TrEMBL record, chains A, B:
<dbReference type="InterPro" id="IPR004709">
    <property type="entry name" value="NaH_exchanger"/>
</dbReference>
<feature type="transmembrane region" description="Helical">
    <location>
        <begin position="304"/>
        <end position="333"/>
    </location>
</feature>
<dbReference type="Pfam" id="PF00999">
    <property type="entry name" value="Na_H_Exchanger"/>
</dbReference>
<dbReference type="GO" id="GO:0098719">
    <property type="term" value="P:sodium ion import across plasma membrane"/>
</dbReference>
<keyword id="KW-0812">Transmembrane</keyword>
<feature type="transmembrane region" description="Helical">
    <location>
        <begin position="452"/>
        <end position="478"/>
    </location>
</feature>
<keyword id="KW-0739">Sodium transport</keyword>
<feature type="compositionally biased region" description="Low complexity">
    <location>
        <begin position="638"/>
        <end position="650"/>
    </location>
</feature>
<dbReference type="InterPro" id="IPR006153">
    <property type="entry name" value="Cation/H_exchanger_TM"/>
</dbReference>
<keyword id="KW-0915">Sodium</keyword>
<feature type="transmembrane region" description="Helical">
    <location>
        <begin position="20"/>
        <end position="37"/>
    </location>
</feature>
<keyword id="KW-0967">Endosome</keyword>
<keyword id="KW-1133">Transmembrane helix</keyword>
<feature type="region of interest" description="Disordered">
    <location>
        <begin position="638"/>
        <end position="666"/>
    </location>
</feature>
<dbReference type="InterPro" id="IPR018422">
    <property type="entry name" value="Cation/H_exchanger_CPA1"/>
</dbReference>
<keyword id="KW-0472">Membrane</keyword>
<feature type="transmembrane region" description="Helical">
    <location>
        <begin position="157"/>
        <end position="179"/>
    </location>
</feature>
Length: 666, 666
């Protein structure tokens, strides 16, 4: 009697465990297959695409193979409540039980409540995506941003992310409104679909996914500036799309779903957009600024604190009504720029690895869940006309974002965005986790259900076709001589980019970058390097050297003792970047794994920060390894009839201070 | 209209974020204070005690400072249901909304539903503890177990854990039954309290906490065998207590709460105990055996897989009706013994650090939540008589566990358990996370509420008084001359144990340990070393060498290629342990931090496994550091009138193979 709730909870708990086990098994399978693909150097399908396929398979099995009838203990209450409260207190013979709203139950064809317990059980609360799975992905994106290149291209990135996304949102919204009006005219529409719904759809499918871009381009070692452009755009994109979609919801006049255009509401919505975005930005940056300089001796405490700080940024933003994901993105960027320098080397490793792991797990989970929902979601509305219209709109929206903006930006840029790279940007605009999370958040109405189903197909298409196809497409665009997919080809490409890197290095020596950059960047760089970095980190020159002499006592007070010690060996601004190539290669390990492993050991044991994040440097490191193997000359087998085998004589690698070159020692 | 659920969810989500933020802030505060304590070498209070104090403070504020009236959108339904189903489908004007049971709502004095929204919101689902917070703690305990010493003392550990916990459970149960009967007689009891409830209480308060034991004893470098005894007991304790408590619930005849003794039900309950325990054990060990030998090149995949495997062990056990926590404990022990050897060095670091972090966060979260519930839980039943009885029973139960068993065990042991150490075991039996989690799992009845409140007080008392007091108590017991708490004292203690270590080393050279051990251990050691290790890992001799020649083809087939490479440099069995001293010191960093940091660099750069986990070796490493600082003689300032300053001439540290001693290089 008294133990009834206890046993009931046990039973329900066993079911939940079994359901969660399905997802864990999915992830395990995905990991094993990823390993197999990497091991066999099979690259036609990206790992996220793979996770989706497994998800689809399990979805099919759950949908058609297993049928668990609804638990008889579920009671259907027909009560006199005219809305659905978030919490329900049920008075069961004098005792009060609390129930929380899980959501509206999907209805089948005949508007009957579906009775498949299993399908209902494997459906997650959509908020899980926003509160648990997205934050680590977005934080990792910010934390691993190559900031030097990001800030050098900040103007173009902001243009693509803000102007471009808004353009894309409205272009898609208008096209969809045309389609929806047509469908209504021919009687193809089964419910309401308003103009704001169209705009909302435009906003959610305008968010391109940084995950796949990061993965593919890291593997290919494309020109870093262009990479930063594309990656920066796709990261900020997400932030803009979230804020845009919630502004559109706020714009929707309460209780009045007409599509009349109201200037006041439009302005209000714009105000919401600005307020939420700047609030989230400020919050993220502020938390990133908080630095803990004295915890260095306790890496565990430091790592835990770092983790909690980034999580609390997210929660604080959500609690304030801002957007947690946006806050966490800027928190990641700021922490990578300042806080990272204050961490002990041990914690630097730990935080990098922790967020890498969280990102990997969350990302693969989302994509396999996506595959699963294709069959497990019970309220799909697949409308062929709408789907066709959506694909067309997404394509045109992306084109209206990239091409005109690139043309305008090229008027001002020194390093032009080539037309081939514009095509790459056009096709690398995959839709991923963010689009999915935004569309699954609310699937209550007919319009939202149709949006969700269509969005799912768009994500599938872009990840499988564009994602799988970006790799070859990219090479077609950038390097027309490319022919086969074999292993030597990758060496060839590396050499190609190596030479490109060396050439660009000769054209513009890297120490001069700050002189050739645009003046806002230069001013920011100087301010950051002379004042912010010394104030917030141990690196950079001490404030006593950079502030005017009249501020001497203040400067002495604000400079940490370590800053003086570091004065002699000032870190190069480049080397602050977090995702150095060793990390990349350990993530997407290839022929170069052993290189980086040994390279890293050298860096670690000598205590210096090692080689910087530049593409050029990476290839130098690679070449250094090759030299170590083959002697002092780098001869790489390039079986290209146009280009003869390349022989490059390399400068000896810079020896870290305080230790002799490594090979002489052994 | 249509966006109502969307907005409602947003609002509810903001509240949840704010509540979670309270806990994150608590954890952050705890971390900062822990750092301050470590930095200032203040050791009178353990960090878990600290987390509790912060929890209590926030609980007081929430209880008396903030009053958020219940949300008006909560609707109280008085429905004709005679039990509380797990899922409720509410028909709101044609739409079905799903509600999930959160639990019974606490009632205030007048059996009215309390209307404080805030207090209700900060209350977690008790299952969170079992499914999210406990598994990493228990896994970490298993993964960081010093297995050599654990297996050497396995007999005594099993005796304490199984026999001792059952004794303690029944002693406490009987004493409590006496108290409860007395209370019923004098009219002090406000509800039912059966004999099975008493036994249940005995089971949950018999679980001693490994966390605090681990922390305190690691800091003190006590004799490893005794440490293994205490730690092993407290780890297995938890497993036994969980299974015991669920067996007692199963014993309770359904619908009949009389305290009649039924032989049949007792037998059934014993069968449940054995079945659940052996099932969980088998499952944990089986998952630990699964090895992935070819993933070495991809540390990220390897770490992710390792993490998922341990989590799926937990879920699988729960889904099968076994006990996930027990399964995860044995999974941790097995993985540390076999799988750990197959991981790449990078993944070994990563997994260690990951579980260390998870353990740290989960542990501090549980303890601060404990503090919080003292004031936020709304159904406390504090009965002074019951509390007094419980404290007495816990004390007597522990005594009935330790002293008789130690006497019996000493009859068979060569390395006797001294009477002073028995006192230490008596007082180091803190109650912690597991006791709390078991008691909060069900607080529906009056008996359970009284148990929960009392358990909370017991945990508070043992953590604050015994936990804070174990350190000095331990020294009083082991080293009577000890006087002050200053810094030199710690050096003195280290020297004391250093000499103890050296002495015991001379008495029994460590290479001979397997010859002096009991024969079951010896058989197991040989079987494990010759067959299991080569089969499941890359270490150990190849099977071709250990199997009889007739099994040649089979042996060649089962031996991995790496095993042959490793043949020359067989790892010592000692060095398999995971929690080496570098890790310990980085967790509880003290004077020795720089030592271990440099020591670790040597190990890492030279590629060997480094010094083993033995107490002796640690002190040698410490001494080595001292020598590096002061010359070749170790003179430590011991200001003890009885003992003159100790001068120990140390052997030169063993140089890792393949590299010259470190100091000559620099």
């Amino acid at each position: 009697l008294d133990y009834f709730p206890f046993r009931l909870a046990e039973e329900s708990h066993r079911q939940d465990s079994a359901n969660l086990l399905i997802f864990i098994t999915l992830l395990t399978l995905t990991i094993l297959t990823i390993w197999l693909f990497k091991h066999r150097r099979f690259r036609f399908l990206h790992e996220t695409g793979l996770a989706m396929i497994y998800g689809v398979l399990v979805g099919v099995i759950l949908r058609f193979g297993v049928h668990v009838p609804q638990n008889m203990s579920d009671v259907i209450l027909g009560c006199a409540v005219n809305n659905s409260p978030a919490t329900l207190l049920v008075n069961v013979s004098g005792r009060f039980y609390e129930y929380t709203l899980k959501g509206e139950v999907g209805r089948g064809k005949g508007h009957q409540v579906q009775d498949d317990e299993m399908l209902r059980k494997v459906t997650f609360d959509p908020e899980v995506f926003f509160n648990i799975l997205l934050p680590p992905i977005i934080f990792h994106a910010g934390y691993s941003l190559k900031r030097r290149h990001f800030f050098r291209n900040i103007g173009s990135i902001l243009a693509y992310a803000f102007v471009g996304t808004v353009i894309s949102c409205f272009v898609i919204g208008l096209i969809m409104y045309g389609f929806v009006s047509f469908m209504k005219a021919v009687g193809q529409l089964g419910g309401d679909f308003f103009f704001t719904d169209c705009l909302f759809f435009g906003a959610i499918v305008s968010a391109t996914d940084p995950v796949t871009v990061l993965a593919i381009f890291n593997e290919l070692k494309v020109d870093v500036d262009l990479y930063a452009l594309l990656f920066g755009e796709s990261v900020l994109n997400d932030a803009v799309a979230i804020v845009l979609s919630s502004s559109i919801v706020a714009y929707q006049p309460a209780g009045d779903n007409s599509h009349s255009f109201e200037a006041m509401a439009m302005l209000k919505s714009f105000g919401v957009f600005l307020g939420v975005f700047s609030g989230s930005f400020a919050l993220g940056v502020a938390t990133g600024f908080m630095t803990f300089t004295k915890l260095r001796d306790f890496p565990l405490l430091e790592t835990a604190l770092f983790f909690l700080m980034s999580w609390s940024t997210f929660l604080l933003a959500e609690a304030c009504g801002f957007t947690g994901v946006v806050a966490v993105l800027f928190c990641g960027i700021t922490q990578a720029h300042y806080t990272f320098n204050n961490l002990s080397p041990d914690s630097q490793d730990r935080t990098k690895q922790l967020f890498e792991l969280l990102n990997f797990l969350a990302e693969n989970f989302i994509f396999s869940y996506m595959g699963l929902t294709l069959f497990s979601f019970q309220s799909h509305v697949f409308n062929p006309l709408f789907i066709f219209g959506a694909f067309l709109a997404v394509f045109l929206g992306r084109a209206a974002n990239i091409y005109p903006l690139s043309f305008l930006l090229n008027l001002g840029r020194k390093n032009k965005i080539g037309s081939k790279f514009q095509h790459v940007m056009m096709f690398a605009g995959l839709r991923g986790a963010m689009t999915f999370a935004l569309s699954i958040r609310d699937t209550a109405t007919y319009a939202r259900q149709m949006m969700f189903s269509t969005t799912l197909l768009i994500v599938f298409f872009t990840v499988w076709i564009c994602g799988g196809g970006t790799t070859p497409m990219l090479f077609c665009a950038l390097h027309p001589i490319y022919r086969t997919f074999n292993q030597k080809f990758y060496v060839k490409v590396t050499v190609f980019f190596f030479r490109v890197g060396v050439d660009s290095d000769q054209d513009s020596p890297r120490r001069d970058t700050k002189h050739e950059s645009a003046w806002p960047f230069r001013i920011w760089y100087n301010f950051d390097h002379n004042y912010l970095k010394p104030l917030l980190t141990h690196s950079g020159p001490p404030l006593t050297a950079t502030l005017p002499t009249c501020c001497g006592p203040l400067a002495r007070c604000l400079t940490s003792p370590q800053a003086y010690e570091n004065e002699g060996r000032l870190f190069d601004d480049d080397s602050d970047s977090i995702l150095n190539d060793a990390t990349v290669s350990s993530m997407y390990a290839d022929v170069t794994v052993s290189t980086d492993a040994s390279g890293r050991t050298v860096n670690r044991s000598s205590g210096t920060r090692g080689l910087s994040d530049d593409c050029v440097d990476h290839d130098l490191a690679l070449a250094e390894h090759e030299v170590a193997i083959r002697g002092t000359r780098l001869v790489l087998p390039v079986d290209d009839p146009v280009e003869p085998p390349t022989t490059v004589t390399l400068p000896s690698p810079p020896s870290p201070p305080g230790s002799e070159p490594r090979r002489q020692r052994l």
